[in-house]
């Protein structure tokens, strides 16, 4: 059996190398060739002598012709944001597959790992399914559970799954590969959750609504590709890359209020259900430990951080502006 791997990132390289070594790789379809990661993957493929076909959304017929020439049994999409046009889905019906990191139909969407980490999930599921005209709705061919470490970030989990992918596809091939009987997904239920691409509302900290564990998991989900979970101080945006719930008195302070600054505890902030240590904070001026940030900008116990998005005036992005006058006083 010969497979084409369709991707846009070097996270797919372990799978590509494994199939190549087993002489089961027909070619690689590469999307977004202007990106640095895509260029690095193309260079790796060139070193191995693996044929690469650039995916042009305006020329699906070129991909169909390439699949026919390569006589590939299936195209497996992984780590790919490209949505195949309906004409391709119909022409390659049953041969166009995708690896999705959730137990479909739960967490359908562009970023299932973000939402699972953000909810504190301890495990997930890789699903190999046929691509249908509606995203993430095709029949299921194979599934395997995976563990989520309590300290996994979005990127560390992606890397772990990247390294597990060869075994996952190898097990599917051993189970019959394309001869595996497709199973229709169960009907989508009201309790099933979507997994859209995170936006400003899903990556911001709401001190009044989120507890210490909620914020802990959100920082993991936002680290590093989203720059951290956003919150604000004096209308300026800060990004929390790491935080830890700790045992410490709240003193009855409102959520978002600083309850302690100093060694060895660090920068501690009240939540409605406990206390959170702000471990690593990112802003335009650099990356600081919570304690060094508090000392550098002379924060005081009793001061409060604000939720994000900012609603009082025009939103500011700390990664793209230098308006930190209030902090620097």
TrEMBL record:
Residues 59-160 form the Formyl transferase N-terminal domain. One of its GO terms (molecular function) is methionyl-tRNA formyltransferase activity. One of its GO terms (cellular component) is cytosol. Residues 205-284 form the Formyl transferase C-terminal domain. It holds the Pfam family Formyl_trans_N. This is Formyltransferase family protein.
């Amino acid at each position: 059996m010969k497979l084409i791997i369709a991707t846009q990132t070097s996270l797919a390289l372990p799978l590509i190398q494994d199939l190549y070594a087993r002489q089961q790789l027909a070619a690689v379809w590469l999307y977004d060739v202007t990106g640095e990661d895509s260029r690095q993957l193309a260079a790796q493929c060139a070193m191995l002598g693996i044929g690469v076909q650039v995916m042009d959304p305006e020329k699906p017929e070129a991909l169909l012709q390439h699949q026919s020439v390569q006589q590939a049994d299936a195209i497996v999409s992984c780590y790919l944001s490209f949505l195949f046009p309906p004409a391709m889905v119909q022409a390659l019906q049953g041969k166009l597959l995708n690896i999705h990191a959730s137990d479909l139909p739960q967490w359908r969407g562009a970023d299932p790992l973000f939402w699972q980490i953000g909810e504190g999930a301890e495990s997930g599921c890789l699903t190999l399914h046929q691509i249908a005209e509606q995203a993430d709705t095709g029949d299921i061919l194979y599934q395997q559970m995976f563990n989520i470490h309590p300290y996994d970030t979005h990127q560390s989990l992606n890397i772990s799954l990247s390294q597990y992918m060869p075994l996952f596809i190898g097990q599917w091939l051993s189970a019959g590969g394309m001869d595996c009987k497709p199973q229709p997904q169960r009907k989508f239920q009201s309790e099933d959750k979507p997994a859209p691409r995170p936006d400003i509302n899903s990556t911001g900290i709401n001190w009044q609504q989120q507890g210490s564990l909620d914020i802990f998991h959100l920082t993991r989900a936002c680290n590093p590709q989203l720059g951290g979970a956003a919150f604000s101080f004096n209308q300026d945006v800060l990004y929390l890359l790491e935080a830890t719930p700790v045992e410490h008195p709240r003193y009855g302070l409102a959520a978002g209020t600083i309850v302690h600054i100093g060694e060895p505890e660090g920068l501690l902030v009240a939540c409605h259900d406990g206390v959170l240590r702000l471990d690593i904070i990112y802003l335009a001026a650099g990356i600081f430990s919570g304690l060094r940030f508090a000392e550098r900008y002379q924060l005081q116990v009793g001061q409060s951080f604000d939720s994000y998005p900012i609603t009082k005036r025009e939103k500011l992005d700390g990664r793209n502006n230098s308006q930190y006058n209030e902090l620097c006083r």
